[in-house]
Amino acid sequence: MAVCTFFGHRDVPDQVASRLRELLIYLIEKKGATHFLVGNQGKYDQMVLRILISLQREYPDMKIEVVLAYLPRKPLSLGEAVSAFVPEALESVPPRFAIDKRNRWMIDHSSFAVTYAWKPGGNAVNYKEIAIKKGLTIFELSQEH
Questions:
Q1: Burial of 5 by CB count in 10 Å (0-12 exposed, 13-18 middle, 19+ buried)?
Q2: 33: β partners
Q3: What is the DSSP string of 12-34?
Q4: What is the phi/psi pair of residue 52, to 5°?
Q5: Fewest beta carbons within 10 Å, which of 4, 83, 87, 144?
Q6: pTM of the predicted model as reported, rounded to 2 decimal places
Q7: Are 112 and 27 within 8 A, CB to CB?
Q8: Residues with Cβ within 8 Å of residue 59, at least 6 apart in sequence
Q9: Could you tell me if 66 and 38 are in contact, meaning their C-beta atoms sit under 8 angstroms apart?
């Protein structure tokens, strides 16, 4: 079972969705990706989750998990086929460090990372670089940069 995670800038353009969908189908069909770890901050995470949920109809064996940095103030509406959790390692982390710790946890538990990360100095680029150093296979969606 191959595990895939995601990192991207908050302001991802809508036209990235079609490339993301094609890439996810490739990862499922050709690379054996069946387990997907998604954050819950920003437009990129929302786009990823929306596409994964739509693909789950075609690939019912997929496991989609929203990895939370901390418990949300209001309940999440994710649908019945998606679960959400805070990793045990984050339970005692102060909120200002929680997103960083969550992202590193996702890297440590994944084989692949699908990124939309091109802005130098941006957090998405930083996590992409950490994932590369950890040996994850990176699939970059930003073609124009």
A1: buried
A2: 2
A3: --TTHHHHHHHHHHHHHHHH-EE
A4: -60, -45
A5: 144
A6: 0.90
A7: yes
A8: 28
A9: yes
- In the chain, the N- to C-terminal Cα span, in Å, equals 32
Query: Can you tell me whether residue 49 is helix, strand or coil?
Result: helix
User: Is the domain 2-140 a CATH 3.40.50.450 member?
Assistant: yes
Residue 106 is given by DSSP the state H
Q: How confident is the model at residue 142 (pLDDT cuts 50, 70, 90)?
A: confident
Specify the amino acid at residue 45.
D
Mean pLDDT of the chain: 88
Q: Phi and psi at residue 11, in whole multiples of 5°?
A: -100, 45
**Cβ proximity of 86 and 97 under 8 Å:** no
Q: Which residue has the tokens 């005692």?
A: 92
Q: Residue 33: is its pLDDT beyond 90? A: yes
The pLDDT tens digits of the residues spanning 47-59 come to 999 999 999 989 9
Average pLDDT of the residues in 61-73: 83
